[in-house]
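agent: user wants the structure for Bifunctional glutamine synthetase adenylyltransferase/adenylyl-removing enzyme from Arenimonas terrae. delegating to structure tool.
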Amino acid sequence: MPVPTSIDHALTSLVERSLARLAERAPAVLADPPRREALAQLALCSDFAIDTLGRQPELLDTLDGAPALLRLEADREADWPAQLRRWRAGESTRLVWRDLRGLDDVDATLAGSSRIADQALQAGVDALSASLAGRHGWVRSAAGDVQSLVVFGLGKLGGGELNFSSDVDLVYAFPEHGESDGARPLDAEAWFTRLGQRLAQLLGDVTADGFSHRVDLRLRPFGASGRLALSFGAMEQYYQREGRDWERYAWIKARPVAGDLAAGERLLETLRPFVYRRYLDYSALDGLREMKALIAAEVQRRELAEDLKLGPGGIREVEFLVQALQLIRAGREPALRHRSLLPALSALSAAGHIATATAQRLAAAYRFLRRLENRVQMLGDQQVHTLPDDALARARIARALAFPDEAAMLAELDGHRAVVAEEFSGLLEARRRRRAHAGAIEQYWRALPDGGDAAVLTDAGFSDAVAQDAALRDFARTPAVRALSGRGRQRLDNVLPQLLEAAARSEAPDASLPRGLALLQAITRRTSYLALLEEQPAALARLADVTARSALLSDRLAAHPLLLDELLDSRAAGPVPEEADFEALVAEALAPLPPGDTEAALNALNELRQAIGFRIALATLGQRLPAVDAARRLAALAQSLLAATLALAEADLAAAHGRVPGAGLAVLGYGSLGGHELGFGSDLDLVFLHDAAPDAGSDGARPLDAGRYFARLAQRLVSLLGSVTGAGKLYEIDVRLRPDGAKGMLVSSLESFADYQQQRAWTWERQALVRARPIAGAAAVGDAFEAIRSRTLTAARPHDALREDVRAMRRRMRGELDRSSAVRFDLKQGEGGLVDLEFLLQALVLEHAGRAPALVGPRDTPGLLQALAQAGVLARASVDALLQAHALMLGLGLDCTLDQRPRLVPPDPALDAARAVVRNACAEADLAFEVDTGAAHPGA
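agent: tool returned. relaying tokens verbatim.
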């Protein structure tokens, strides 16, 4: 017999005291020896459970029964906090009991903790919503439907694997904006914000009965500084524009846990392209490295090396490993899209991404860590992740887990953590590799990451060999390189030295190599591309040339490896599709898709935009396509894509609300889109008009009045154009040029638009009309717009007032926007730049179109110049010089965009001469645009 130790005596004494407290409340409970023994084990495991049974002795008779349901009664609002807390304590005690008795495994315990949180949240949402509606009514959508808050659980709650005593990571959302229908109405955001605040307080406030669940709302968009509840539209916009890598990890586990669950699932489907990219996405590992580094620093700062969650080999590393692999692959493999970790780990193993034995070891480690974490928290219902310092508390945990002592428990813990740490490190770090003897550059590459001499790069022609050497070593350590098959590695070993040599021969070696490495990082898993690069030296040389000369195209290649098809295709060096071809190309891209699959259609349109835009950029970069022609093709491509996207939006809206008989929407392109002068990455300036009668409405099952119908249609179009897909998003949209700007309605009727242009429009708005044209939508509305535009532009106007308005606006713009300096010229806003030329042409059209209506026809700069020459407004020699100046500056601007540089260039004789041509033409037209002497100039 082992000799009892002081720890044994202390444990026996603790258990006896706990049982004595229970006997005071329920004397009969200890009469049964098996029951007494089970309660003794419970006392060893959990002070929290014993305290709960002491407060609620009636639970002793129900521990083996079914879970109790929670219902907060409407007429007992003051009792809700106590009722909720007592219920949660009772249900949590049941979890401890079932875990200790072996009735539940750790998976069931985690699911049980999640169920308790789900029920508490749903009961809270139901009760608080009814209470709020009693004062302010229910929030209704534009269609009149009652809306509900959607509560998303992130983290372990979303995965259905919540800790015993964990906080709950929540995000609140609601379907759409509206207003409540009570006597004291609130707008939707205010209503749902109040509900969300009260829900957090109901669950999280500490009262005499403790708490139900600590609520953490910091994972919402913009964190603690963000709005508490956002509409679905705002959520989509945030994640499309602002979403960061760590948020992709967070939303893998997202689950609607309370409120309108079906609506929540619909939003998650909308956000899926943000979380899961269509192609193998190794950028996820970069985000993981950053997060891991931050956590490691925090662990070191707070001395958390023994933390079960954050420490080396802890729970977080298992989660990161699995979630990283999900982010990389689940975009292409839907079977990997699991919220819960263990099913995701199993799916990764089944798909061959993790060895079966490895997955089994990781699952065993994860279950052990989670069970131990739960037992630590069950002790006192505290949110802790580290074994207690107190020897007695550690002994309690070890004995309750059936270990003979603390040392045995720690030995098993260390073994599991070692498994996790090894596998997690294997994801982020590379093994050492050595290859056979080869040439200097090949020898250098094959010696990486641990060997190799950076002097080889200096000899090859790289200026910053140290930085390039570090980049190559990092690349050699990437999991993508390490996981290559033998043939894949051989191809990479052939391709990368050739790329190094090609980059060294390029015009910018130190720019070319990192960009080329970024591309290789993206395609290394797709060895078919490596094979093409290996077998086609011309394509490899083209790649090195592109990476040396264009940061934009390099980034696009790395982000969208499908563009390599364009680079490697023989068509890359051939003719670019003509403007007339784009409509047929769009139809061809959409033809294989099932009707109604908006997501697939958007992805196809994005892929087409990427491919054709890339080909136009290659032709521009290779000087096979003049800048003016490139800009026209980009505008024509945008027009075709916009028309197809409008059809998708119309179909979506018609399915819910029908159509407005006899009426339609026209989409107008302003600015560079209207002027056939779009750049790479330009946004689209759009204005929307409809021709419905004031009393018209849609004919669907849920009809809308025409104004709201067409506003919804325009909103849907803008949303689709900006939606992020696996192939990127189509375009950023700017709608501020509509009548009355940001204060005006998104969609105007033809009558109101005509009245605005005739009565209230500023001169600069009439200038904008010079480049405006119908892009898509109802032809009748587009024709009516053309008539309004023609009447507006040909109207008589005072010569002096017109010029003064144009001069004043241009001077103001230059004072605010011109970034020119003594050594750099702003191609767009600088004196004698592209905007000066635009203002000159617009002023001349407004002045002379009344007597020369042909000036109303063209929208593009070359067309306007030719029309002004034919009308005798500008001399032919001046027009020819302005055409050359425009082409030069447009080309310089596109070059800057292709290399992701601001459109600021150093002066040279050709540019100086072009600027002088524009300045002289403006002066001859009495349009001097110098900045007012009192105005600040950015370049001064």
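agent: one observation worth passing along. Residues 430-438, 932-940 have pLDDT under 50 and may be disordered.
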